[in-house]
Amino acid sequence: LVWLTLDRMRGWIGWLAWVGVAVAALYTQYFVGGSVVAIANAIALLAVLRAWKADGRFPGGFAGRWVGAQLVVLLLFAPWLALAWPAIRDWPALGPAVGAGFIAREGLTTFALGTRPLPAAMSWLPALLLLASAGLLVRGRDGGRWAAAVALTYAVVPLALMGVMSLTRPAWNPKFLIAGAPGFELLAGAG
Question: Rounded to whole angstroms, what are the CA distances from 42 to 1, 4, 81, 89, 153?
Answer without folding.
Answer: 14, 15, 22, 26, 7
